[in-house]
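Local shape tokens:
==================
===
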Amino acid sequence: MCRLLAVKGAEPFEIAPYLARFAEVARASSEYQGDGWGCAFRHDGVWQLVRSVRPIWEEYPADLGETTFLLAHARSAFDAQGPMIEHTMPFVAGPLAFAFNGELRGVHLQAPGRIGAEKLFGLVRRFANGDNGHALARAAALVRSRSDYVRAMNVLLADGDQLHVHSSYSEQPDYFTLHVQRRGGRTVVCSAPFAGEGGWRPLANHTQEVLA
């Protein structure tokens, strides 16, 4: 089960320091998070995507410049799949960037995608009609109703203007709870607080919020 990060700022910020903090979160995780990583960031109104099958703490770039919106994902492969670039998030389609952390067992849905996260993102895109928050909530509800068991379903959905965060889990709250920090005109969402930094609040279970 993976690790998530989103940062949205009123003004541009350097990407590399946040990737460095996120790399430490991934390396310190109770579960191995070294099966690849990726990030999506806005540049001139378009999502730029970087993905790798190596652990983030071994090779995150230090020269990605600045952005006002960043999503990052560190992967822990499900069922010993191992590193696979096509399963490495974030996923990007047009104005939407998507990252998922959790486990969906027995998803009975006719939706495009090889894994549950791809099916969920496909449903979000299918339901999108100008209200991406509603599309995410509708897609999550459908996946929950058509799955044998939802261990956890944490989603970051960014549309360039807003960050929608969906969080739900059935076990391991210490592991699956997302944390939010607002500081200096920036909103940060991460799977765990950054070491040595205060001002974090846990996001309640079974909630969805627009955080920036």
Q: What stands out?
A: Residues 15-28 form the longest helix (14 residues). The radius of gyration is 16 Å.
